[in-house]
Structure formats: C-alpha cells, structure tokens
Amino acid sequence: MDLGQPCGDRAPGIRRMTGMFCMFDKEARKLLLGATLAVFPLLLCGCSHDPHLSFLDPQGPVAEIQRRHFLEMLAVLSIFVALPIFVLIPWFAWRYRYGARSSRYTPKWKYFGPLEIAAWSGPFVIVTFLGVLVWHSSHALDPYKPLVSTQTALRIQVIGYDWKWLFIYPDQGVASVGMLALPAGRPVAMQLTSATVMQSLQIPSLGSQIYAMGGMVTRLNLQADEPGEFMGENTMYNGEGFHQQQFRAIAMTPDDFNAWVSKARSSRHCLDKAALRALSRRTTRGELIHALGSGKHREESISFSGASARLFPAVVRATMTGTAVDPQAPVHATAPRTPPKTETLLGKREP
Amino acid sequence: MMIPNFLQHPLGRLDLDALPFWKMLQQPTHANVINGIIATGAASMVVVGTVVTFAIITRYRWWRRLWSEWLTSPDHKKIGIMYVVLAFVMLSRALIEAALMRAQQAFGLGGGFLSPDHFAQLFSTHGTIMIFFMAMPFLTGIINYVMPLQIGARDVSFPVLNSISLGLTAAGAALVMISLCLGTFSTGGWFGYPPYTEATFSPGVGPDYWIWALTLASLGSTFTGINFAVTIYKERAPGMTFMRMPLFTWTALCTSILMIFAMPPLTVATAQLALDRYLGFHYFTNALGGNMMNFANLFWLFGHPEVYILILPAFGVYSEVISTFSGKVLFGYRSLVMATMAITILSFTVWVHHFFTMGQDANINAIFGIASMLIGIPTGVKIYDWMWTMFRGRVRFTVPMIYSIGFMLLFVLGGMSGILLADPGIDYQVHNSVFLVAHFHNMAVPGVLFGMISAYHFWFPKAFGFRLNERWGKVAAWCWIVGFMLAFFPLYALGLMGMPRRTVAYTEASYVPLEGLAFLGAILVVIALSCLIVQLWISIRDRATTRVFAGDPWDGHSLEWSISSPPPEYNFAIVPRVTDRDAFTLSKENGSAYKRPDADAYADIELPKNSAMGPLLGAMGFALAFGLVWHIWWMVLLAALAVLVTMIARGFARDTWRIVPAERVRQDLDRWLATVTATTAVSRAGEISVANRGLAARSDVGAAT
Questions:
Q1: Is B226 near chain A, with CB under 8 Å?
Q2: Which DSSP string do the residues of B499-510 spell out, in sequence order?
Q3: Can you tell me the mean pLDDT for A64-74?
Q4: Which residues have C-beta within 8 Å of that of residue B232, sequence separation ≥ 6?
Q5: Mean pLDDT, to the nearest integer, of A207-222?
Q6: Beta partners for A233?
Q7: Are B398 and B459 spatial neighbours (Cβ–Cβ below 8 Å)?
Q8: Measured between alpha carbons, how far is B501 from B437 in angstroms, rounded to an integer?
Q9: Predicted confidence band at A300 (pLDDT cuts at 50, 70, 90)?
C-alpha cells in the first residue's frame, strides 16, 4: 500500500505561518527557500518510492515549524556569525602575511576600546535575538503540548521493547508492531514508556523525538497532514538489534484507517500473555514476527487484536516493581487511570 | 561465599571464552570468523606492540634508564612528555577504530562486515579513548610541560602526585588496551547510560572495564587539577601577577578549576553504577526505585565542563601561537581572560542540553538552551580577539599557524551547529542523530586536536632541542583539515536525513554516497596521522641540522623561550623577575635577555628525588581494576592492601629532596650562554630554514622577502 506522493509534487513551500515566526520579510523568505532548495536534491534522491525521511521534507505541522525554525536559525547564524569570520580571517591572513610590504605593522597594538566593545556586544546582540527565538520555539515545539485541531487527538500508547516498538490503540482495542497507522489530518497524542532500557522514538518527517524510559511515561504529540509513509526509528542505542528497530508510520485517509482498525480487530494474533512474553524477549521485529508464526510473505509488520487499555499502565508498574506484566490485573484503586506522572529535573510534572 | 569462590574459580570469570578468537574456533560461522579475525588482529597488535617494545628496551639495555630517568622521575617536563606519548599511542588506536567504523558504515547498506556487537564496542572504545586517554593526557602533558616554564617555576607544587596522576591515567589506558585481548569492552557508548549498562542488560565484563578505566582516569585528573591550580597559585615567579600570566597559563588554571569540580560527579556516578552492578544496589535500575535520569544528570554535570576542560587549553595554545606567528602582542588580553573565566563558570550551567528529549518542561529546556547559547558570547569574543591579533601583524604560515587558522574557520561552523543543537526545538529533531556526531567532532577535531597538534609543533623544539620537519608537518596539517571536512560534513547532511548515531547498518540507499565520502575523509585522516609519524622519524634523523639549543626558535614572548632547549632539569638557573606581560619579549627589547648573572646570584637548587610511587600505584591500580573486572577477588584484596601499605610507607619517607649545587648551575648556564653568543641570530624569513638555531634577530619587522 503506497500512499506516498512523488516528491516532485511536494514543493518545499511554506504552507502556514504561525505568528511568531513571521520575523522575516519577503527577501529573507526567498533566501530561506533558496537554501532549502539547495539542500533538497541531496535529500530527496530516489525517494519517490521510499518513505519520507527528513524534517526538511516536512509531512506534518510539527516538522513544518521545525524546518522553518531550523532554516531561520541557520540563516541568522550564517549571515551574522560565519560570514564576517569567513571574510575577515582569510583576508587578514593574506593582507598581513609575512613579506607583504604594503600593509601596516603595529606589533605593540593590543587594545582598542571600540573593537573590544564590538567583540562583546556583537555576539551578545546575536545571542539575545536567538534567545528570543529559542524561548518561543521551545514552547511552540514542546512535544507535550497538544496540537491545535478541530478533531480530537487519537490516543496511542507506545512501549519500547528490545528491539521493536509496540503501538497500542487503547480506544480501538488493537495494537501493532513494525507499523504505526495514523489517520491523516488528525492529531496523535502518544504516551511512551519502555519495558526495557532507555530508547527514543522519532519519526523525523513528522516531528520531535522523545525518550521512553522504564517505569516512567513521556508524551509526544504529532500529526501527519496527508496520507503517506514516513520512516520511524529508535535513535538511542539499546543493543545488537538497535539498527533494526525501525518502523513505517503510515498516514491514511479516515476510511482507510477505519478499515485498518477493523482488519486488526480480526487479527488472529491476540495481545495476550504469550504475545507479551514473545515481545519481552530480546529479539528484532523480524524475529518476533517469525516467532509468532505470522506471514508466509515475510511481513514487515504485525497487528494484534484484544489490546487492553490496561496493558500500558501495567507495563509501567511492572517495570517499576521489577515483576512480570499481568495485563489482566485490575488497576490499583488509587492509581490514576492515566499512568504515573513523569519525573522531571525539578520534581514531578503533571501529565 | 567468597572463600569457595577463591578455590573454585581462582581466575574469577576469566576463562577461554575471553580470548578474541575462541568463539570463531567454536562456532565458525561467516560472521564469527570475520569479526574474530578483526578482533584477533587488534589483540595481536597490542601483544606484538608490547613484546616488540619490551624486546627493544631489553636489547638496548634501556630498562635502568627508563626506570630512573623517566618512569620514576618527578620532573614535570618528563611527565609531560610521557603524557603526550601516551596520548599519541591511544590516538593511533582510536583513529584506526574510527576508520574501521567509517568503513563499516560505507558498506553498511543492509549489513556490512562487522557484527553489531563488535561495532558497538568500537564506538564505545573510540569515544572513551579519545576523551579520557587521548585528549586528556595530551592536554595534561602539554600543560605539565609548558605551564611551570611559563610562570618561572622549578616544578609543579606536588611533583610525586604528578607522577601518580600519570600512573593512574596510564593504568586506565592499559585496562582499555587489555580489553582488546581479554573479554569485550562496554557497548554502552562513552557515556554508558544505565539501565543498558546495568547487570540485567549487560551482564558481561564490558561495562566493568569501562567503569574502572574511567575511575582510574578521573582520579588521576582530579589530582592533576589540584596540582596545577596550586602550582599556578603558589609557584609564580616574583612579579608575575595574575594579569601578567601568559594566556596559556590562564587557560591551564581554568581547566584545573574545572577538573577539580567536574571530575568528582563522574567518579561518584561510576561508583554508583559499580555498586548497582556488583552489590545489587538500585541507583539507576528500572526497578525498585532506581532512576536512570540521575545518572544522566550526574554524568553530564561532569560531561559538559569536561568539554571545556578539553577546549580551554587548546584556546590557550591558539592564543600563544597566533600572537607569536603574527609577530604581535596578543590583542585584548583582558577580554580573553574574562572570556575564559566566563566559559569556566557558564560550563556548569548547561548540562541539561544533553537530554532535552527526556521530557522536561518547555521552560526548563528553554532556559538551558539559552544558557548554552550564552557560551557563544565569550567564545565569539575569543575568535574576534585572535582575528585582531592577526590584524596589522606579520603572519607566518608555519605548521602551528596553519592549524590555528584552520581551527578558527572550522570552529565557527562547529559553533553554529552547536547553537542549533542548543535550541530545544531543533534538538528534538537532530538529537542522537549523526548531525550531533558531526557537531562534537567539529569541536573536538579542529578545536581540541588541532590545538594539541599545534602545541606539539610549537613546543617540540623546546622539549627536545630540535625542530620538527616543516614540509611533512604541512602535508599532515592539510590532510587533517581536508580529511576532517570530508569525514564530518557529510554527517551533517546524513543527520538531517534522519540517520541515527551508532547504527551498524541502514536500509536507506540515499545514505550511501555521503557515507562513501565520509569514508574517504577517514582514510585521509589516517594518512594525516601517518604523516605525523613520518615527520617525527625524519625530524629525528635530521636533528643535527635543526638544533635550537639557544632556545628561542619562534621569537617567543613568554618565559619558556628565555632558557635553553631542552631546558635544564631545574628550568631556571636563577628565578626570573617579571615586570610585565610577555616577559621575554620585554627583556629581548631592553637588552636584559641572555645576560650573564652576577657570580653571587647563583644558589643551590633543591629538587624532588625520584619516587617509585607513580609506577607502583599505577601498577597496583591496574591490578585492582583488573581483579574487579574479572571478579578475581584475591587479586582485588592483595592490590588494595598493597596500595594502602605503599601510601603509608611513603608517609615515612623523609629524605625526599636532593641538591643541585650552585657551581653546576653556573656551568650549565655558561655553556648555554656560550652557545647563544656563538649562534647567528636569524630573521623570521629564515625561521624554517637550517639557519634557525634558536636565536631571533631583533628589529625584525618582516620587511625581508
């Protein structure tokens, strides 16, 4: 099922401008566009059949902001930081080379107030300006921040195993490994944890990454604008199968998504104890699919029926207490329905 | 429980499986054979290298000299040289590993030739070595050699402690080396995040090798930091106020302060991880109240100041080199000092930027992001002040200067990518990607390594009395610069294309051309190191034509150039009196340089006696760590006991000083002054010719062609 569009159709134009990023006039925007185009041939070679790889080829609102922010930062830094240095140092080195007779030589010249003030205030002004941009972008791109949309977000719970991701759709009662099905145009609110070591989930062409850690829950909000296929991965080394811990995020039309859900609901693989045991083994996705006896056609992904909303909190608790997961166990009376709060540097944070 | 262990397993967990070729012989699959051959080859290099070294030393009967003149010497100059030798040995290993990794990734589309586990050991040892056993020994060696000379001191404050620091660092390096021959190293990367490195997930010896190697090195560095800081506070020549210190000494001071405060968090973090692994504690485990985020905080509380420990001395070197080879006083000295201090303080305020993606609040991330960018201000000031130092100067493109100019241009690019990474919004995309790898290599190679190689060329004639070959040096410099660019610029693009770091293989065909380019760069960098080796060989061969006993081959500014090359063991016949910055330039100008002192100015000089404490504690530390790695408990107990006994015994040593008689000092000085008188001064035009015998002509304004 290739829902991806040929890259040539996807002009790197700016689709939407959020208020705080309108800092550049038309000229500067043209420059940004030029810079993007210069990088693009490199990035897009042969990708018409492959999933979207990069946030420079953004497929959702988060990656879109990231790309624009990246390019505006790059432009500011190139013009105000790199350019003067790249002009002046080679020029001075040549102009004042040993043996140059025409240039002045002032061996004792060691202080000139205005230059010192410029040396400190120049970088200060640049950093202040960038600091303002960073303050805004840090908040605009906070992965915990729900995306603005007319549609309610689709809940997905992500559990990192060695070396595969399990995606649970608690409201649909299905789950999948190796493929993240998304409805295009609708925000996705993910909760993440790890049943093993620290991992990091990222779908670059959609947006940010966030760590998944045992006994803790982190959050990530993403959205795909159009149907398409996007490369997803773990970026945090976690052992031999690390390089195979990739998956395809596939954005579908709402109808296709519903069709996928119904198909998954009728999957002969149920997310039961046996399946969880198989998931917990240190195996790659391929080995897991083989072990579960799925697919004569060496399938890339597998979907599960009977995915309970209780599983995710159960995994968090089990990892925290160092016990085996029992998805059937009743949620503890005092425990919130949503999983425990994430610990952060400065204390507890409300989920 | 321990007693039966002793009897049943006298070698702990050490058995035949630890040998790199054992698995290949037992299960000769295709992958096992390839990885076995590579691992065995690496192990044989270590074994053969050691055997050949021992054979040569025995053949030429150098053991006694090696022991009495080098290993037990408390002389800061010799300790400095040994540190640099250690750094070059470890650089060679880690660079070969880097080339192997680039080769693997160049052919990594869908597989490659290395096993994932082997690849993981490569990136873990490469990082660990380059930081702790290449960069740290290199800068410690250069500071050791140069700083006491620059402040007019006879030695560091604690000469024997200095030797012990070297012993501990060398023991850590030896532990990393022996991991090639016995067992496997950690696969958790140079920062070894738990819970991956906990016993549950990495039950083997790998993380233990990593923990104890780092513990030895971090103890050594803590002692070094204390030693250098006290030396700079207490041993400066009369008249050398803080604001008259050469800039390299300033950076050495700031680095020492950083070492004192930044190394302990690392020692604590690795000790806690050891408690988890050995005694079942739960500091950083998933379960039972452990929290791996605490490790990340502790590690980077060390790790971020660490990068400034590495870069500040390099900044010091560039300040000296750019000023010397521009034939000018350093521009904006006061600004440069303030910038160095600002970086020192700010470096403790930014550690969270190593894990923006751990789920902190946007406010926290934004604050740490902006704090990280603030460091760009003093760094920018430095670049501008170096630039104004070249302005209206007479710039000579010698080898150290080529590295310095290459550094300034490339470092700006690294700084730019650093600012991008310090921006949490962008970091969420490029964190853990090869973009990050490109960034920190962009700081570490042109920043730290170029600085250290530049320092090696700059002060080599001071240390050995002859200059390094200029032509081979230039070839090496260009290979480093171009090789670096080829190896790492493609990684920026690959990172933006979503390629994660530490991946042994990938499935995207579009990564292949850029990976190929990076591999070419790696080859060029290996050639660069080979050129440095050839250069050393040729320079030693031709040393008769490049001797600079008079001591001042580059028309230097600071006190180290005011004495012979190589300097006498006591450094200064008479401790100099300092009246301003650039003390030696001043004395050359007012004619007080090379003056014979009054006959009654000489005095007996007290120097520390040789001590076996350094090599002994190094050897015992190694045995202790090795025993801990392999659970050989009798070795642990014996080594720990030996360490205690040795330290107590040293407490009873009272006769620790020896006297160099004033008469010998006078003779040495007379001999040197006679050479100076007989030496023809050379203008800067003849700097790299055979005419340069270490005496700089005055009133040389570079008018000559």
A1: no
A2: PBTT-S-B--GG
A3: 95
A4: B147, B151, B245, B249, B252, B253, B256
A5: 95
A6: A202, A246
A7: no
A8: 7
A9: confident
Of residues A43, A134, A231, nearest to B373 (C-beta): A134
For chain B, which residues score pLDDT lower than 70? Answer: 1-7, 699-705
- Among B438, B584, B426, residue whose Cα is nearest residue B517: B438
The predicted structure's pLDDT at residue A84: 94
Task: Report cis status (omega within 30 of 0) of the bond before B195.
Answer: yes
Q: Measure the CA–CA gap between B356 and B368, rounded to whole angstroms.
A: 9
Q: Which residues of A touch B335 (CB under 8 A)?
A: 116, 119-120
Q: How far is CA B128 from CA A243, B110, B112, B178, B688, in A?
A: 22, 28, 24, 14, 37
Rg (CA), chain A: 25
Of B288, B352, B702, the CB nearest to A105: B702
Token reading at B227: 């030693």
Q: Kindly report, residue by residue over A71-95, the tens digit of the pLDDT.
A: 999 999 999 999 999 999 999 999 9
CA distance B285 to chain A (A): 9
Please tell me the predicted confidence (pLDDT) of residue B30.
86
Task: Give how far the C-alpha of residue B420 lies from the chain's centroid of Cα atoms, to the nearest Å.
Answer: 27
On chain A, the residues whose CB falls within 8 A of the CB of B412 are 81-82, 85-86
> H helices within B280-332, ranges in order?
292-325
Give chain A's mean pLDDT: 82
The structure's pTM equals 0.91
pLDDT of residue A13: 35
- Which residues of B are less than 8 Å from A194 in CB distance? 286
The nearest CA of chain A is from the CA of B258 a distance in Å of: 23
Predicted confidence at residue B699, as pLDDT, reads 63
Minimum distance, in Å, between the CA of residue B481 and any CA atom of chain A: 15
A207 lies within 8 A of chain B by CB: yes
Alpha-carbon gap: A266 to the closest alpha carbon of chain B (Å): 31
DSSP B352: G
DSSP alpha helices (H): ranges in B12-29?
A: 22-26
CB contact under 8 A, B704 and A42: no
Question: Is A329 part of the contact surface with chain B (CB cutoff 8 Å)?
Answer: no
Closest residue on chain B to A112 (Cα):
B332
Would the pLDDT of A47 be above 60? no
d(CA B395, CA A324): 70
CA distance B520 to B660: 54
Q: From CA A134, how far away is CA B367, in angstroms rounded?
A: 9
Burial call B666-677: b when 16+ CB within 10 Å, e when fewer: bebbeebbebbe
How far does B513 lie from chain A, in Å, by closest CA? 10
